[in-house]
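Protocol step 4 of 6: record predicted structures for both targets in the notebook before any analysis. Target 1:
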Amino acid sequence: QFWFTDHMTQLFDIKQHFSKCLGDYIAAVENQTYLLKRVLQGLDSISGSSEDPEKFISKPLTAYKLVRQLRDAGTVIEEITEKNMPEVVSDCSTGLDLNALKSQARVLPSDTDLEGIALAILRLQDLYKIEPKKMSGMDGTLALDPDEMFHIAVIAYQNQQFQSATLWIQETLRKLDEGVDAVVTKQEVLHLLESVPFQSWNLPIALRHLLPTDFMDLKTLLQTFSHTFSFPPKSLKESMKGQNGIHPSISPSDFSALSHSWHWEYEALCRGEGVKMTPQRERKLACRYTTGGGNPQLMYAPAKEEEEWDQPLILRYHDVLSISEMEVIKTLSRPKLDRAKVSDPATGRMVSMARVSKSAWLSEDESPVVAHANRRIAAITGLDMKSAEELQVANYGIGGQYEPHYDSMPTNNSLFELQGERIATVLVYITDVEVGGATVFPNIGAALQPKRGSAVVWFNLLKSGEGDARTLHAACPVFVGSKWVANKWIHSRGQEFRRKCSLSMFD
């Protein structure tokens, strides 16, 4: 029928419409292909060792970059599948298609996961007093681009950590000034800076990037910024005093607003400051081989006992578990790991930012290794395990912490009413930690470093049965590495003749 002229004319119109539709389709497919290629390039830019992935992602910024790239990949896959892109995108032997990618994307990190990593970075910056530039310069750390830095600044701003936000804004602007490619613009970054409540430390950053280098007219300067920033003129004049008289940069040591007064001792100990062990007291500490008063299990293999602290007595036992035993415990725990819960009798909350870790409980029935660990703990402590809790295994990742707390629980807890309070804590370190992760006691100024295979033991109760206030302790945030520990909490019921009571309230 297309032989006729009239029909040929219609065919021309059909061709025009078909060409437009085909062009639109090709443009859409090319755009989707471009997005997928960008995702692939982002993922390929994160090149780590497959032999030790845990070590590779142990750096905070590297972990953030990995989570962000995977989050972006999942977002792109979901967007493309919603637009009905042709299903088969590969005929490789695995039969991978878009539906399979979409299925895998469901387990990729979410926005919430990315925000959690950003908050962990801010926690580390807060406690360890380290500025973003130094954090980016750590060995083995993947550098963040301006978009990633700006996102951390936004998270800090949303959580009212304004000085941290300013520091990340400063680093974002520095990267943009160096010409690093980014989606975010300098105007957007400065707009966020304008939203930060005015302090003396964020004005110089704004001035540095808003003013031309030869701008020296202070009167005009005052008129220009008096509406944008709410400050008295005197503040401006003082803030202008810095290097070469103008445009001072923020001081790395200006972190006073980031501190929390109620646990400054804890924070200082985590940084290696404020340890109160004197040389005279330290000389009296001893280490020895011990059989636990003639315990048959220790007669032929005495425990290696080291005094870590004198008042109260804190002991460390070395080589309590072998490397193979610790790996078994980690393997058993991984499928059961869940966000660690903290019981608050006032609010009833079970998940708290005071404890950022995942934990699992292991019983002796699950493996002979768990049973052996319990017997070993019983031997070195000399305490009865019948009233002890199951072995709790905890994993503290990037920024993982447990703020100052006592191991004794409220008396309205049914377990504690039956078994008594936790008379002793045994903390087994399953891994070493490269940076951070110390166990600190703020009230006595003690700081204990993780050492793989060792167990630290202390009593939470005085011999009178009263709680020992000196045992307030905390797990410092993990800066680099992954911290695995096993806790064994032993209750007071059944220990009457193993740790005899005292009439003195000070013993």
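Target 2:
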Amino acid sequence: MVLVFALGYAGIIFEEFLGFNKSGVGLLMAVSLWVIRSIGAPSADIAVEELATKSEEVSEIVFFLLGAMTIVEIIDAHKGFKLVTDNITTRKPRSLLWVVGFGYSLLHYFLVLLFFSE
């Protein structure tokens, strides 16, 4: 399994030189690792149970990210980030860090008051 992972990881790293697709190499590596793991499992029931459990965990993350990306795209399509970017006038990284940090802290404070006050 370590060898398959190392070869797949090397394929992802050197995809530009080898002409591979990162997604294809990653999917091939994942399927190969699950096939090897399933062959080494004590029984087919255990292998299916492990695969189902891991698929559920990955699905939760993927569905959360799809929802979050959809919200960001909707905000971006309606120029929601333009309000923020137009009001940030500094170009110095240190000042930008303070502006963004203060803005985030202020937003966090008001959201906590809004949703968690009794």
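Step 5 preliminary note on target 2. The chain has a mean pLDDT of 89. The two ends are 53 Å apart (CA to CA).
Proceed to step 6 after PI sign-off.
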